[in-house]
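Suppose a colleague, Dr. K., hands you the sequence of a protein chain of 418 amino acids and asks what its three-dimensional shape might be. Before reaching for any lab equipment, you can write down a predicted structure in token form. Begin with the sequence itself:
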Amino acid sequence: MKDHLGRQEAVTVKEAIKILQTQPIHTTKTETVPIEKAFKRVLAEDIFSPEELPGFARSSMDGFALFAEDTFGATESMPAYLRVVGNIKMGEKPKFKLRRGEAATVATGGMLPEGADAVLMLEYTNRVDAETIEVLKQVAPGENVIAPDEDIRKGERILQKGHRLRPQDIGALAGIGILQVMVYKKPVVAIISTGDEIIPPHEKPQPGQVRDINSYNLIGLIEDTGGIGIKKGIIKDNREELKSALLEAISTSDMVLITGGSSVGTGDYTEEVINELGEPGVLFHGVMMKPGKPLIGAFVGGVPVFGLPGHPVAVTICFEVFVKPLLRKVSGEEVLHYIPERKRVKAYFSRNLPSTLGREDYIRVRLREEEGRLVADPMLGKSALIKTLVHADGMVIIPKDSNGIYQGQEVEVVLFEY
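The predicted structure, expressed as tokens, is then:
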């Protein structure tokens, strides 16, 4: 059964995602990079620590290294007395060994001398003379001390294959002396812009022409997801030119995005061309959502191919909902579905907004503060208007079983990246 545009009936968003996610995914090849270049890269191997961290017993406070047992029972009214036998210098191994009844000054991060098993904080002591301290509080063994393997144990797996590296991960690698890691190569995503009306941004539009917005928008979205976007140029509404460009893109890229060729019209041959190039071809054409209904989802020879709508807002929404999760899998990332891909905040909707049952609506919103709470104002406008994205802070999703949002209703806003 076909819809009013001549396509097969549209699938739901959930069905489309499931169709895409169940296809066999070919991850990119691997390469070894220095950790300075590994930020946001995806690990292609498990990382096991070759050593302990910090590797020695160190103080977590400024104070005195000592035997904990020497402080047992000490109070302000009944202090204990210890002899100070040394001062531990930062970055050096103490050259002396503590005996019972002795203590040594130590700064935060300093290495404990042999024999010491605790650190007494400076404020719980009084200096009696140059060689003696008064202990006003007892400490337990291990108190205010970081054990040699308390942070990381030797042989411990600290990072897993498929993990996208964060700044703290790079710091941990440096801390255990790992200076290079094997990561997946960044996936290359080909971008093909189509349409007789599309011209490069450096040209002045004539009546009926528009500058290419989508490919530049997509470059940023792809790079933000960890990929490399490659513009393949603007293809006019010519079937053979589109076929040639798509064939070249599939053979040289890990994913292909076509903009402007998903709607049914005299110049749109995208679905036919995709099906001619390999199996399984087009998996669905049309999704019950707004904006983005004309979306095409396909695979050709293991390469994901998307036919995106031509309107900039629809392009962004389709990328966020369908392209981005798949691109993360292609890049080797182990996607944890219980962790949101983007930051989300709660806000109160500022007006009534109806929606069509059976269709998911993606509403761009701008956030503002009013009387100490967040308010979401809908940025209403056609999906061809890039301004509704530029002025938006995020989006609210109206589910397909809802007939809209009421003024004052609490909603979840999926924030756009900054």
